[in-house]
Amino acid sequence: MHSGADIKEFGGQMSGPPLIPMIHAIEAASKPVVAAIEGIALGGGLELALGCHYRIAHSKARVGLPEVTLGLLPGAGGSQRLPRLIGVPAALDLITTGRHVTAAEALKFGLVDQITDHNTVNVAVKFAQRVADQPLDARRISTYPCLCPSDVAVLFEEVMQRVRRTARGAIAPIACVQAVRAAATLPYNQGMERERELMATLFTSGQARALQYFFFAQRAVGRWSMPSGARWDTSKPRPVHKAAVIGLGTMGRGITVALAQAGFSVVAVETQEKQLMEAKQAISGMLERGAKRRGVAPALDKINYGRNIQSVADVDLVIEAVFEDMALKKKVFQQLSAVCKPSTFLCSNTSGLDIDQLACQTRNPELVVGMHFFAPAHVMKLLEVVYGPKSSPLAVATAMQLGKKIGKVSVAVGNCRGFVGNRMLKPYLEQALFLLEEGATPEFVDQVLEEFGFAMGVFRMSDLSGLDVGWKVRMADGLAMPDPTTGQPTRLRQGRRYSPLGDLLCEQGRFGQKTGRGWYQYDKPGSQVAKPDPWLHSFLDEYRARHALVAHRIDHQEVLERCLYSMINEGFRILEDGIAAGPEDIDVIYVFGYSWPRHHGGPMFYAATVGLNKVLERLEHYYQAHPDVPSLQPCHLLRKLVASGSPPIQKWREVIKKVRSQL
Ligand SMILES: CCCCCC/C=C/CC(=O)SCCNC(=O)CCNC(=O)[C@H](O)C(C)(C)COP(=O)(O)OP(=O)(O)OC[C@H]1O[C@@H](n2cnc3c(N)ncnc32)[C@H](O)[C@@H]1OP(=O)(O)O
């Protein structure tokens, strides 16, 4: 197995002999060199194999050039040899996506010469003996002409456009296309020179650092810990064979699909007859489409539907996904506690309600945890596993393990309003509304955020998820109501600045895409094409006039800083409160759950890149200008980190520990 270069070395001195001359020496050798590929050959590992004269792979092997996912390109000749071996279109696919391919697919591409189910080295030795006398001139890939389709210029143009569209500001995929274009248009030596130049730019880029940090962050979140000291390596999960989902709305349906696709038996309960019928149809459709894509049989028989909560009596784990209403959820947890076997884990898919209050409804509160999925639950990779003060390490370990089995990136977090993701989203959304009050338009705010790399700006995202969702929560919190004395929507609630703009839109029935109107207008309800809405612009003008607000020019920098730094500040509060164990947890949640651009590493890594002192200074500036917005007040941990000389992100945990021990 060769997983390529040691990524940890990229930040410093690389050990070992330089790879490029070594690969050239192998390729130039007068004796045949056969690569025997077992396990995986990625990155530099595959580049080495491409320098060999033949490649034999075990049938279970996987190969790929994943450098792009680390902000790099295949810089040891991979971008020049692969297109010469398998053709430009296939090489562009592999190099720009970084995807791993199976041995069978590699054989189809002509990337390997033979696959075997036996001992690969033995087969490779026999192969070498067989070809020992054959001339090698035709086996040196660097000498191959790069076979291009006749419309290669059009192909490169199309791929470049697609890559620019999907890269969301990432530079490595673009450099990968440029490197392959060099292979297609230049002699090998000049192509290698171009590869070297492009790699030199990428190698020292902030994006490469961010992506390499994120590679390790993803792995670090699996090593969860709880404030009690319980940890991933000392807490054993209990196996789950049969699970139940309660409530088959959008979330419940997605969760059911995710469980069934991973091979779990699922009892899916929905008490409303009509909703149950619709859910059955929708779930079957999702399973069938997913199975077709993956070329397997749909897991329809894994699911038993029912209207009665009694039918979950024998399951090992339940995920409640009923409407986001505490009273309703409490009732469901009381019923579950009465119906289920005492050892059943009871989990809630709440997106921010208090897990502890739910645990209190049950006989075994230590078996209660949150399992917060993200919509669509069968697609989105993120799962927040939320432990309350009573949750046992066993329950956390089991939920984390289940998450892994259904293909999620699971992050264990503490219990607080909104957990990590939605708690940090609140100041971000709040700033976006304040910016509208002060003179910005939804289009401008979204444009700035999308240029930064978010898949969708805050207003397009709100229109997609539905404005009524937050409205209901604000009503339940007693926020979204007019001032009882004046009947007017006030801009100050509970002692702090509040923007009622979202509530006012909801009062007009503007719930976003689903109603065809929200922060934007749509051709029809359900349409996804957002268009600026002149009505909204007049509405904002009238609103400002009513509240004597003078619109001022808001620039790109102000949008970005206020939206992102207020969110980051909340991230520091979360660390200070011990809700997330480390910055990596927050970053992984934001990349996988909130489309934070991965090449910026996540909000906490981004803060480190910008410079903590700069983040602090800008927050102080904005807080001075808006003293009624507490989320702009720099938090203690941020100040402490700056006072400690802004240590690298890998050292933050030490400062956090000190700050927490002083609390
Ligand atoms: C001037 C230019 C000259 C060019 C020089 C040559 C340059 C070559 C470029 C490269 O080779 S870039 C690296 C390309 N390779 C990769 O991107 C592979 C990354 N790894 C993976 O995708 C996966 O780890 C895996 C290999 C598919 C295995 O997955 P699995 O789920 O089985 O295990 P993990 O938990 O992911 O990993 C286990 C453990 O190993 C660490 N690790 C894996 N790969 C690397 C690596 N390439 N460098 C350093 N560390 C690696 C991983 O972090 C885990 O560690 P932990 O401590 O247990 O968390």
UniProtKB/TrEMBL annotation:
A Gene Ontology BP annotation from the UniProt entry: fatty acid beta-oxidation
GO cellular component term of the entry, any: peroxisome
Keyword Lipid metabolism: yes
Keyword annotations of the record: Fatty acid metabolism, Isomerase, Lipid metabolism, Lyase, Multifunctional enzyme, NAD, Oxidoreductase, Peroxisome
Compartment annotation: Peroxisome
Domain 3-hydroxyacyl-CoA dehydrogenase NAD binding: 242-415
Occurrences of domain 3-hydroxyacyl-CoA dehydrogenase C-terminal (ranges): 418-522, 559-646
Coiled coil: none
EC nos: 1.1.1.35, 4.2.1.17, 5.3.3.8
CDD domains linked to this entry: crotonase-like (cd06558)
SUPFAM superfamilies: 6-phosphogluconate dehydrogenase C-terminal domain-like (SSF48179), ClpP/crotonase (SSF52096), NAD(P)-binding Rossmann-fold domains (SSF51735)
UniProt GO molecular function: (3S)-3-hydroxyacyl-CoA dehydrogenase (NAD+) activity; delta(3)-delta(2)-enoyl-CoA isomerase activity; enoyl-CoA hydratase activity; NAD+ binding
Major subcellular location class: other
Pathway note: Lipid metabolism; fatty acid beta-oxidation
Catalysis performed (reactions): a 4-saturated-(3S)-3-hydroxyacyl-CoA = a (3E)-enoyl-CoA + H2O; (3E,5Z)-octadienoyl-CoA = (2E,5Z)-octadienoyl-CoA; (3S)-hydroxydecanoyl-CoA + NAD(+) = 3-oxodecanoyl-CoA + NADH + H(+); (3Z)-hexenoyl-CoA = (2E)-hexenoyl-CoA
One family name in Pfam for this protein: ECH_1
Family label: In the N-terminal section; belongs to the enoyl-CoA hydratase/isomerase family. In the C-terminal section; belongs to the 3-hydroxyacyl-CoA dehydrogenase family.
Subunit structure: Monomer.
Protein name: Peroxisomal bifunctional enzyme
Organism (species): Astatotilapia calliptera (Eastern happy)
Gene that this polypeptide is encoded by: EHHADH
